Amino acid sequence: xxxxxxxxxxxxxxxxxxxxxxxxxxxxxxxxxxxxxxxxxxxxxxxxxxxxxxxxxxxxxxxxxxxxxxxxxxxxxxxxxxxxxxxxxxxxxxxxxxxxxxxxxxxxxxxxxxxxxxxxxxxxxxxxxxxxxxxxxxxxxxxxxxxxxxxxxxxxx
Length: 157
Prior knowledge:
The protein is 24% helix and 43% strand. It is globular. The chain has a single domain, classed as Nucleoside Triphosphate Pyrophosphohydrolase (Alpha-Beta Complex). It has helices at residues 51-63, 113-118, 127-132, 142-153, and strands at residues 4-16, 22-29, 32-39, 41-44, 73-85, 88-100, 119-125, 137-138. A four-stranded mixed β-sheet has the order 4-1-6-5. Strands 7-2-3-8 form a four-stranded mixed β-sheet. By secondary structure, it is an alpha/beta fold.
């Protein structure tokens, strides 16, 4: 089956709690439901949005956490990736923004239906856990990014 090509620019969000852990989502590609992976919050920039505005919108839509654009730091990393998901073949520029969240209550209530259908859980991860896990995490260098953010903040990660 031929995939529909889609080029997009995305804001990826790294919510970091008071313990220096990052919030990740767990889910699967609807075309391959048996392959599970952890991934960062985020999505495509919509018309007229800045990357930070997209980050704030996606943070609310995907996990129910409200934040102002001025609360985000970064981008702490940027990458161009290619991957398939559902019926699409994505070419994606992604920029990673961090935000400090204390006592965050996570909710999937504002997700689009396809996101609700393919997101199974969430978890807070330390950089040590990311480095030692056997599970698939996207991006693969997330522990390095998390440590860089902690160093910039003057905290151990």
